[in-house]
Amino acid sequence: MTSNVAVIIGSLRQASYSRRIAQALHELAPAGMTLTELPHGDLPIYNGDLEANAPQPWERFRTGVQGFDAVLFVVPEYNRSIPGGVKNAIDVASKPNGKNLWVGKPSLVMAQSAGPLGGLAGSFALKQTLTGSGSVVMPHPEVYLGRVATLFDSDGPMVADTKEFLRGVLANFDTWISRFASR
Ligand SMILES: Cc1cc2nc3c(=O)[nH]c(=O)nc-3n(C[C@H](O)[C@H](O)[C@H](O)COP(=O)(O)O)c2cc1C
User: Fold this and answer.
1) Share of the chain above pLDDT 70, in %
2) Which domains does the chain carry?
3) How far apart are CA 116 and CA 41, in angstroms?
């Protein structure tokens, strides 16, 4: 099937491992799956008082979430949770009342961290928020990329076995998306 998947990269820093992982996914995606970054770093913190004249970045982000078939998150763990900007992005697209764009939206979480646990706690926090907002989060296979620096050949490409693991994950996500596709 064909699917247009938004990619939310949880880290804003230039040399982010989350970004490097996201970039490596393009060549691993199954035929028909297109991955496109959906930026979130410019979203003002959610404040219902602003809804009367919603900030342009909110509108851009909401239009993005609405237009994509699914959303893939590549996130680092921050303090046993997720970066605040990612939580804010989810909040923004869940409002105003009656216009929660996450309901029924397929999603996938890829977590990574410098340490051995691979962002497990951050991943759980993100899945809790996504599930709570109505997204259908792919439960399996789970993606915890620990000791992330070792998953790349120095400044070069991702190592082969991680590539093959993620290729399989994306194939599963393709099937997951097709279950919920409204086409
Ligand atoms: C504010 C902050 C909090 C962090 N908290 C955790 C944490 O709770 N657990 C962990 O394993 N790593 C933690 N880290 C390390 C990052 O998860 C790790 O360096 C990650 O690979 C950074 O992702 P990036 O390269 O995409 O920016 C933290 C990093 C920052 C900046």
Assistant:
1) 99
2) 3-180 (3.40.50.360)
3) 27
Q: Work out which ligand 1 atom sits closest to the CA atom of 19.
A: 26
Q: Bridge-partner residues for 107, per DSSP?
A: 71, 137
Residues with CB under 6 A from ligand 1: 11, 13, 16-18, 76-80, 112-115, 117, 148
Count of beta carbons in the 10 Å neighbourhood of residue 89: 26
For 67-113, write each residue's pLDDT tens digit: 999 999 999 999 999 999 999 999 999 999 999 999 999 999 999 99
Mutate to test the pocket of ligand 1, among 7, 20, 79, 117 (most ligand atoms within 8 A of CB): 79
Specify the residue with its C-alpha closest to ligand 1, atom 27: 16
114 alpha carbon – ligand 1 mean position (Å) = 7
Predicted confidence (pLDDT) at residue 183 exceeds the cutoff of 60: no
The CA distance from 134 to 126, in Å, is: 12
pLDDT digits (tens, 9 = 90+) for 131-147: 999 999 999 999 999 99
